[in-house]
């Protein structure tokens, strides 16, 4: 694959407003699929708010990240406003964008805006309005619709706005206005589509995976004795950005020694020490799709014998779990298999005693393995989509992407642990695409075989 296929494609097509790739046909296809479902349910209005810029401190803002649902439907990358699909039971549908209007004065400070003109000309909206007209225009759009698809509970200001619109329509019912009879969570419309990835999405996830594999190798090369966690973090995030990624798709974890036993530890200032393992959980985001990868490497460049035994136990469980990925199986089944294999290894290595059945039944394995094995992956690191279907675990289907991420974490004060393993945390995580016949590991370029890891960690 060429180095930056989507950026190059975007430039060739001459999109003036999109920072990265924007594919008008792709987004139009997504809207058509959603419209078809809305119509099959009697029609209505789908309202997807865009994220707002957020203050970090005083008047400085966080780097803006568009709302994933809005982005999926619109491809629009600017803050504020909303995307609306108006689908009457019969007749023509409308795609409406509310956007920040063009403002030459503000654009000098914060960059170019598509404006209402660009929302129509570039992003394919049938109508576009400035955000200042949201309340009045939305009330008109929702008036008479049988139902409103809107996610209550994500944003208090939006909940209040929707309430105001509903109250306004109810109060004007004698004058002929009609509030929707139902407010429905759009997760079933949008998240179910997001769960099954198209070839375009898989290509973006593969690019994110490539960038991420290079970042993990950079971390292994850099993470020698004396380094600080934040320095390894810098190597990783440099690799993401340098190769055209947006940056990290979630907070980068660099955890050396017993910091690895804190599951959501971030890169701190601990010094990497000879004889320790360093756990790195980091994923680059490319075109808004993120990878999610964990590797654990020896700071000295070589695993000690007990470290290697524990590492191989995690790796064997992970390999077996990955090979179990295929259409029809479930995340629950993959997790149960992983728990079984890790528990057997914990007994073999002397952490637990008795039989695997007993230690699974009394849940004592959870002292060393307390998290789940898999989650959906896509625009969001913990991506959307229902984990259950008809009251049971959901069967995997081609196009779904999951992580497989077993780990073992030995508490620092665990007196029952074998010598040399107290405070050791190991996790190995890959991103796995469900294919027609089985699976494809998207993140295979990041080394995990202990010999290959040691080869990258040459000191
Ligand atoms: Mn993960």
Beta strand %: 15-25%
Number of strands: 21
What percent of residues adopt helix (DSSP H or I)?
Answer: 25-40%
Taking the alpha carbons of the first and last residues, their distance comes to 31 Å
Q: What is the number of independent domains?
A: 2
Let me know the largest β-sheet: 6 strands, mixed
CATH topological fold name of the largest domain: Creatine Amidinohydrolase
Gyration radius, in Å: 25 Å
Number of helices: 14
Bound molecules: manganese (II) ion
CATH class of the largest domain: Alpha Beta
Name given to the CATH architecture of the largest domain: Alpha-Beta Complex
- Low-confidence stretches at least 5 residues in length (pLDDT < 50)? 1-20
Summarize the structure in words.
By secondary structure, this protein is α+β, with helices and mostly antiparallel strands. It folds into two domains: 4-193, Creatinase/prolidase N-terminal domain (Creatine Amidinohydrolase, Chain A, domain 1, 3-Layer(aba) Sandwich), CATH 3.40.350; 196-456, Creatine Amidinohydrolase (Alpha-Beta Complex). The chain is 37% helix and 17% strand. It contains 14 helices and 21 strands. It has helices at 5-13, 24-40, 68-74, 104-110, 115-121, 134-142, 156-171, 187-195, 199-222, 229-242, 305-323, 331-348, 356-361, 450-456; strands spanning 44-49, 55-57, 60-61, 82-87, 94-99, 127-130, 147-149, 182-184, 247-248, 253-256, 277-282, 284-286, 289-290, 293-298, 388-389, 392-393, 401-404, 407-409, 425-427, 430-434, 439-441. The strands form seven sheets. Strands 6-5-4-1-7-8 form a six-stranded mixed β-sheet, with helices on both faces. Strand 4 and strand 5 form a beta hairpin. Helix 6 (134-142) packs across helix 7 (156-171). The longest helix has 24 residues, at 199-222. The chain is elongated, with a radius of gyration of 25 Å. It starts with a helix and ends with a helix. Residues 1-20 have low confidence and may be disordered.
């Amino acid at each position: 694959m060429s180095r930056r296929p989507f950026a190059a494609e975007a430039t060739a097509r001459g999109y003036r407003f999109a920072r990265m790739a924007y594919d008008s046909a792709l987004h139009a296809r997504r809207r058509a699929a959603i419209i078809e479902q809305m119509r099959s349910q009697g029609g209505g209005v789908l309202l997807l708010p865009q994220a707002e810029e957020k203050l970090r401190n005083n008047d400085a803002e966080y780097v803006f990240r568009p709302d994933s649902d809005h982005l999926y439907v619109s491809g629009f990358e600017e803050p504020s406003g909303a995307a609306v699909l108006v689908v009457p039971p019969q007749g023509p549908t409308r795609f409406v964008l509310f956007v920040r209007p063009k403002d030459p004065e503000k654009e000098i400070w914060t960059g170019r805006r598509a404006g209402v003109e660009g929302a129509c000309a570039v992003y394919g909206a049938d109508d576009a309005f400035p955000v200042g007209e949201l309340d009045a225009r939305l009330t008109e759009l929702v008036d008479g619709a049988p139902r409103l698809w809107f996610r209550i509970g994500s944003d208090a200001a939006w909940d209040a706005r929707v309430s105001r619109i509903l109250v306004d329509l109810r109060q004007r019912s004698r004058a002929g206005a009609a509030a929707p009879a139902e407010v429905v969570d759009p997760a079933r419309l949008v998240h179910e589509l997001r769960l099954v990835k198209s070839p375009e999405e898989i290509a973006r996830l593969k690019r994110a995976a490539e960038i991420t594999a290079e970042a993990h190798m950079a971390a292994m090369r850099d993470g020698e004795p004396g380094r600080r966690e934040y320095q390894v973090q810098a190597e990783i995030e440099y690799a993401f950005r340098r190769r055209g990624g947006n940056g990290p798709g979630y907070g980068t974890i660099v955890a050396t020694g017993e910091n690895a036993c804190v599951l959501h530890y971030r890169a701190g200032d601990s010094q990497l020490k000879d004889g320790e393992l360093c756990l790195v959980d980091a994923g680059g985001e490319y075109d808004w799709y993120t990878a999610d990868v964990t590797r654990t490497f020896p700071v000295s460049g070589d695993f000690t014998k007990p470290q290697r035994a524990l590492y191989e136990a995690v790796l064997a469980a992970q390999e077996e779990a990955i090979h179990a990925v295929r259409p029809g199986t479930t995340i629950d089944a993959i997790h149960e298999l992983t728990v079984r294999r890790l528990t057997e290894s914990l007994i073999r290595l002397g952490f637990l005693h008795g039989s695997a059945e007993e230690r699974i039944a009394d849940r004592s394995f959870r002292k060393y393995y307390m998290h789940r094995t898999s989650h959906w992956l896509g625009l969001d690191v913990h991506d959307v989509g229902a984990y259950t279907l008809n009251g049971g675990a959901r069967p995997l289907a081609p196009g779904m992407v999951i992580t497989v991420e077993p780990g073992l974490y030995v508490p620092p004060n665990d007196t029952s642990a074998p010598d040399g393993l107290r405070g050791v945390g190991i996790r190995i995580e890959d991103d796995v695409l469900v294919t027609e016949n089985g699976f494809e590991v998207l993140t295979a370029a990041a080394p995990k075989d202990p010999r290959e890891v040691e080869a990258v960690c040459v000191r």
